[in-house]
Amino acid sequence: MSDDALSRLIALEGVPSAYAAARDGIDVTLRDRGLRRTSPETTAESLLRGAHASAVLEGSGSTLAEVREGRGDEVAVDAVRVSTELLGLAPVLGRSPLQALARIHALAAAGLPDESRGRPRAGAAAARLRAVADLLSATTSAPALLVAAVVHAELVTAAAFPSHNGIVARAAERLVLVARGVDEKSLVVPEAGHLALRAAYESNLRGYADGGPAGTHAWLLYAAEAYAAGAQASPVHGG
Hints:
It is built from 13 helices and no strands. By secondary structure, the chain is mainly alpha-helical. It has one domain: Fido-like domain (Fic-like fold). The longest helix has 23 residues.
């Protein structure tokens, strides 16, 4: 998807208001609660909750308690490994997005042979990965939340890596929100928003994969709702 196409998406019916409302909800969470209760431990808890939710969406059967105790299954361990290094990649995402995406996959796929880690599959999938990197490098008038939503959907549906594409996509989505100043301390849990809306998440990704305008439109409206749910899942709310 080109930057011109990305910029046009914000004009689709319902999208401007949906993303403005989602951003307002995130800003309220961060301003009214986050600034009073922010600590490295709060960020770590947000990342842990996100890793658990992403792992479940990827097929993990581990509970949050098991993940917290270091007893998660292999998928959960992979997602947690990504979360522990993710924020350090924020500067890389802006400078060299392809390198950042490759590193996320290498972390997720640490148990695989070296030749399968951080390297896209050949052909169209690799080309789509480069297109995502170009999108992240481009200047755009589209809001960061919308960029994050498109990056997420593109990475999932492109399946550019041999494995762990969902974990990579959801980690990249969170990283966009950090790198572009929406949530610099990574207190929102977008992965938990997707898990809470799992049926809609999976059906809208299928619609996006079909490649039609209606599917893209529906995904964007869905993602705004998921971001609002992700803000509510932040540990700054307690619980």
